Amino acid sequence: MLWFVELICALSLGGHAVAAQRGTGGFQPRPSCVPNPCHPGVKCTETPQGIVCGPCPDGMEGNGTECTDVDECTVKPCHMGVRCINTSPGFRCGSCPAGYTGPQVQGVGLTYASANKQVCKDINECEGLNNGGCVKNSVCLNTPGSFRCGGCKPGYIGDQRSGCRPERMCGDGQPSPCHEKAECIVHRDGTLECRCGVGWAGNGYLCGPDTDIDGFPDEKISCPELNCNKDNCLTVPNSGQEDADRDGIGDACDDDADGDGILNVQDNCVLVPNVDQRNIDEDDLGDACDNCPAVKNNDQKDTDLDKLGDECDDDIDGDGILNHLDNCKKVPNQDQIDRDGDKVGDSCDSCPYVPNPDQMDADNDLIGDPCDTNKDSDGDGHQDSRDNCPAVINSSQLDTDKDGKGDECDDDDDNDGIPDLLPPGPDNCRLIPNPLQEDLNGDGVGDICEKDFDNDTLVDPIDVCPENAEVTLTDFREYQTVVLDPEGDAQIDPNWVVLNQGREIVQTMNSDPGLAVGYTAFSGVDFEGTFHVNTVTDDDYAGFIFGFQDSSSFYVVMWKQVEQIYWQANPFRAVAQPGIQLKAVKSNTGPGENLRNALWHTGDTSDQVKLLWKDARNVGWKDKTSYRWFLQHRPADGYIRVRFYEGPEMVADTGVIIDATMRGGRLGVFCFSQENIIWANLRYRCNDTLPGDFDAYRAQQLQPDE
């Protein structure tokens, strides 16, 4: 007999009907829900037409008889970056990322997953009681998933390392008596100093605007000190306030500085009245101001300051020995000692133990070529044979007790029998002999050095080097001229004029690259000054130097006004870009065309110059505009940082730079093809203390790369 099966579909929503069987011989028994033919968990219903399976459970799809899991993660129910885990059935989301808060969502089905997505909200750490972990009174900046600490809030000064204190507080935590535009400085003896900020001048208790940043306010302010008087040149820095004719207009901005009715540009004695303009020797100076009226001497050099120029002075150094008999014509030496017999006295001999009558010094390091080894183990600028601490960095070469051993490597600097640090020390007056260690007030500082630590007769608050009796005040009156391109006559050498008792330098000529270098060598130092180009006719380089060891080894901070290709393409093409640049000079040729072009070029030049930093703004200096720079150099650790200000606003900051090319040296100023440059209100100060940002920089450098 033929058997057949007829399928009967039950119109049941979402269900599935199972057909009855029939054939010859009548109906067979109807299928039932026992055992359940549907997918586990799916309802089974018996109908006249057969059984019906309900819809698949949430989180599954199929016909009721067969159901498979749905992957809810395909609709991305979890917060970005949070792991979605598909389960059977359903899904769940992991925890919100660090810095966010929200529920750990889980559920079943696409509809639920789409309608109930996980939301992780950023935690604002800055709203907490502890300012997000930033120091009190500083700015806490919330960022997605995190935060960062900024600077101090308005009205506060400091940083994240030292804390933020009210702006008008002193470093000892006491309220500041200073003007709101002044800084309170606490000296080692506890005394306070108020110093007006950049762009302000006065005595610190009262400050007024100072447009040209020369230390004198634009208008007189009500305090008795000299630097409370009105600036006699408002827009030209003249920190000495020189005024030859006493007309209230400073020489720096007076068209007729001597008041003789003849303009400066035509006057052969700019600072001395001489209506007749008499000039017997026909040099550049009239007889009224010429210290050698009958002998040409445009440089007016007067070594012994007797008002008689060297060119016509039969005893140039004023030591009582006539020039033709004097073996050191420009250095006083009545003893005339000459140990090497080269007819050059030891006092002025660059090689006192090796004959060198020509005194040649190719690298300008003040050591004659025959005895110049250039072997300097510690890199402090002093060759080992002359270094009083050959294995310890001590560019200053300070030797307080004159025992031949520098203080940096001497356990007893003052030779009083009390070691500087070890028992029975430490010595409470390290630089002044005091074997009894008297200390009446018990403050740890011996009575003999309480106010003047180095015994140089200048109290510490005004002493620029309180621990070096050989350096007391900023003074560039004695300087070494270094010409960096001595060959050829395409340009002339720089002409330096020193004013304000050595605290201001003016360079008047469009010249070859050159330096004016002071003779004082420094280890750690802070160096600041006001920079001003007093012309609109040129656009080249001006700046300053530090760490000068010789004419092949120094750091230079230089500023170009506009982009320019150097006009001499030999020995190589050099392109100067506008902006401030910090370079380490280590030249294997020394002064000459190679170093000249390397200095002009913005970038590295092999075996000549390394560019350590360049201001990304590419902004040149402005004509007749004053800028203030601040340098911090700690050569023992290679720390360098330079900041530039235009008025009270900081316009450039190198940040922390670590470089150990030069481990200390001398300071000076730099020019290259730029005339009428003023470096005013110059200040230097010995300082070996590492700035607070050094540790933070080191910690950042030690963090592993992510």
UniProtKB/TrEMBL annotation:
<dbReference type="InterPro" id="IPR049883">
    <property type="entry name" value="NOTCH1_EGF-like"/>
</dbReference>
<keyword id="KW-1015">Disulfide bond</keyword>
<keyword id="KW-0677">Repeat</keyword>
<dbReference type="InterPro" id="IPR018097">
    <property type="entry name" value="EGF_Ca-bd_CS"/>
</dbReference>
<dbReference type="GO" id="GO:0005509">
    <property type="term" value="F:calcium ion binding"/>
</dbReference>
<feature type="repeat" description="TSP type-3">
    <location>
        <begin position="438"/>
        <end position="473"/>
    </location>
</feature>
<feature type="region of interest" description="Disordered">
    <location>
        <begin position="333"/>
        <end position="427"/>
    </location>
</feature>
<keyword id="KW-0130">Cell adhesion</keyword>
<feature type="compositionally biased region" description="Basic and acidic residues">
    <location>
        <begin position="336"/>
        <end position="346"/>
    </location>
</feature>
<dbReference type="Pfam" id="PF07645">
    <property type="entry name" value="EGF_CA"/>
</dbReference>
<dbReference type="GO" id="GO:0007155">
    <property type="term" value="P:cell adhesion"/>
</dbReference>
<dbReference type="InterPro" id="IPR003367">
    <property type="entry name" value="Thrombospondin_3-like_rpt"/>
</dbReference>
<feature type="compositionally biased region" description="Basic and acidic residues">
    <location>
        <begin position="372"/>
        <end position="387"/>
    </location>
</feature>
<feature type="domain" description="TSP C-terminal">
    <location>
        <begin position="477"/>
        <end position="691"/>
    </location>
</feature>
<dbReference type="InterPro" id="IPR001881">
    <property type="entry name" value="EGF-like_Ca-bd_dom"/>
</dbReference>
<dbReference type="InterPro" id="IPR000742">
    <property type="entry name" value="EGF"/>
</dbReference>
<keyword id="KW-0245">EGF-like domain</keyword>
<dbReference type="Pfam" id="PF02412">
    <property type="entry name" value="TSP_3"/>
</dbReference>
<feature type="domain" description="EGF-like">
    <location>
        <begin position="69"/>
        <end position="106"/>
    </location>
</feature>
<keyword id="KW-0732">Signal</keyword>
<protein>
    <submittedName>
        <fullName>Si:ch211-43f4.1</fullName>
    </submittedName>
</protein>
<dbReference type="InterPro" id="IPR017897">
    <property type="entry name" value="Thrombospondin_3_rpt"/>
</dbReference>
<dbReference type="InterPro" id="IPR009030">
    <property type="entry name" value="Growth_fac_rcpt_cys_sf"/>
</dbReference>
<dbReference type="InterPro" id="IPR013320">
    <property type="entry name" value="ConA-like_dom_sf"/>
</dbReference>
<keyword id="KW-0106">Calcium</keyword>
<dbReference type="GO" id="GO:0005576">
    <property type="term" value="C:extracellular region"/>
</dbReference>
<dbReference type="InterPro" id="IPR028974">
    <property type="entry name" value="TSP_type-3_rpt"/>
</dbReference>
<feature type="domain" description="EGF-like">
    <location>
        <begin position="166"/>
        <end position="208"/>
    </location>
</feature>
<dbReference type="Pfam" id="PF05735">
    <property type="entry name" value="TSP_C"/>
</dbReference>
<feature type="signal peptide">
    <location>
        <begin position="1"/>
        <end position="20"/>
    </location>
</feature>
<comment type="similarity">
    <text>Belongs to the thrombospondin family.</text>
</comment>
<feature type="repeat" description="TSP type-3">
    <location>
        <begin position="242"/>
        <end position="277"/>
    </location>
</feature>
<feature type="compositionally biased region" description="Acidic residues">
    <location>
        <begin position="408"/>
        <end position="417"/>
    </location>
</feature>
<feature type="repeat" description="TSP type-3">
    <location>
        <begin position="301"/>
        <end position="336"/>
    </location>
</feature>
<keyword id="KW-0325">Glycoprotein</keyword>
<dbReference type="InterPro" id="IPR008859">
    <property type="entry name" value="Thrombospondin_C"/>
</dbReference>
